[in-house]
């Protein structure tokens, strides 16, 4: 089906969209909960625009995950950029713990960069190497973000 | 062909935009139709009777197979040539594909009116010497605009009956 979609078979594209959309939406809702609809549409647009040039159709899910994560993180950061100055500061962002409802709520209060590594590790079951490849960052950065994310998460639950 | 239920949360017009992103050269236009969604969709879904009224190249459409949302059509153009077309049809979404063309319609309720998006794409692009790609796109968009106007007229008549 992926090969047919890459060749411009519109019915295969339509079916591929049905199969990819729930996964893309789920990731976007976890990484950019306040902009999940926009992130889903932007990620799917980027995926389908890039589909004809995808060189390894068998690795489509890895590529879809990477495109989706980058799109969702960009949209999740947009409100932060008005008050902070980029990912370095966002990593030092201190979440508010008041009125915590559940695990998704706690995740949503982490800065996007920490939220992303925690979602990929705990919800998607990726290794640190796979997370590094997905986000295009060094494995050492994944390790340190995971450490900070877990510490912040633990503090939220224990507070 | 696999007849699976679509995820309900992808708006059809957004779906058409995503589909167009994967079809380089596809022409897409939208029009706010001054008729309710049901009246507009009655026109689009009536493939056999309505298509020859708004599509100038089509003389006749016959539905020869139907399995849920999936249809197979036999389309005869105004020159008498016949072509097999596979289609997917459900409220708000119609996608048709032959060996040479892709045609899609997507509709969204907007109050008492309807936003209708229409895509046309030639799968085999054979530009004539001296004509640029933008020339073909402009011509395709003008044709789609004309078709959307005709569909609006048909839908408005439907709504009045």
Descriptive report:
The complex is a heterodimer of chains A (159) and B (161). Helices cover 72% and strands 0% of the residues of chain A. Chain A is mostly helical and 159 residues long. In chain A, α7 (112-123) packs across α9 and α8 (128-135) packs across α9 (139-158). With 161 residues, chain B is an alpha+beta fold. Chain B is built from four helices and seven strands, in the order αβααββββββα. Chain B has a seven-stranded antiparallel sheet, with helices on both faces. Chain B is globular and about 45 Å long. The termini of chain B are far apart. The model of chain B is unreliable at 1-8 (pLDDT under 50). At the A-B interface, α2 and α3 of A face α1 of B.
Task: Count all strands of chain A and give the number.
Answer: 0
The oligomeric status of these chains comes to heterodimer
In what range is the share of β-strand residues of chain B? 35-45%
Radius of gyration of CA atoms of chain A, rounded to a whole number: 17 Å
Number of domains of chain A: 2
Gross morphology of chain B is globular
The helix/strand order of chain B is HEHHEEEEEEH
Q: Report the uncertain regions of chain B.
A: 1-8
Q: What's the total helix number of chain B?
A: 4
Distance between the termini of chain B: 37 Å
The overall number of domains of chain B is 1
CATH topology of chain B: Alpha-D-Glucose-1,6-Bisphosphate, Chain A, domain 4
- Chain pair sharing the greatest interface: A-B, 20 and 24 residues
Mean of pLDDT of chain A: 84
Helix content of chain A: over 70%
How does the major sheet of chain B shape up? 7 strands, antiparallel
């Amino acid at each position: 089906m992926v090969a047919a979609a890459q060749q411009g078979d519109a019915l295969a594209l339509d079916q591929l969209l049905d199969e990819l959309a729930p996964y893309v939406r789920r990731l976007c809702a976890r990484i950019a909960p306040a902009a999940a609809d926009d992130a889903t549409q932007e990620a799917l647009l980027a995926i389908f625009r890039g589909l004809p040039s995808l060189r390894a159709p068998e690795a489509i899910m890895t590529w879809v995950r990477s495109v989706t994560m980058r799109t969702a993180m960009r949209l999740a950061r947009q409100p932060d950029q008005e008050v902070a100055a980029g990912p370095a500061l966002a990593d030092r962002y201190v979440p508010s713990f008041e009125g915590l409802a559940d695990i998704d709520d706690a995740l949503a209060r982490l800065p996007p960069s920490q939220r992303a590594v925690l979602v990929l590790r705990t919800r998607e079951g990726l290794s640190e190497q796979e997370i590094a490849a997905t986000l295009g960052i060094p494995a050492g950065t994944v390790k340190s973000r995971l450490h900070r994310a877990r510490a912040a998460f633990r503090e939220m639950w224990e507070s | 062909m696999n007849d699976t239920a679509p995820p309900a949360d992808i708006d059809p017009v957004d779906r058409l935009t995503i589909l167009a992103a994967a079809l380089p050269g596809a022409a897409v236009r939208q029009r706010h139709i001054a008729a309710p969604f049901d009246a507009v969709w009655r026109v689009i879904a009536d493939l056999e009777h309505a298509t020859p009224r708004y599509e100038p190249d089509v003389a006749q459409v016959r539905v020869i197979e139907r399995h849920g949302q999936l249809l197979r059509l036999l389309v005869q153009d105004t020159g008498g040539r016949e072509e097999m077309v596979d289609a997917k049809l459900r409220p708000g979404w119609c996608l048709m594909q032959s060996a040479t063309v892709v045609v899609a319609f997507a509709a969204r309720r907007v109050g008492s009116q309807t936003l209708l998006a229409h895509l046309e794409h030639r799968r085999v692009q054979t530009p004539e010497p001296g004509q640029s790609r933008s020339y073909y796109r402009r011509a395709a968009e003008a044709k789609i605009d004309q078709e959307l106007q005709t569909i609006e007229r048909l839908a408005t008549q439907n709504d009045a009956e």
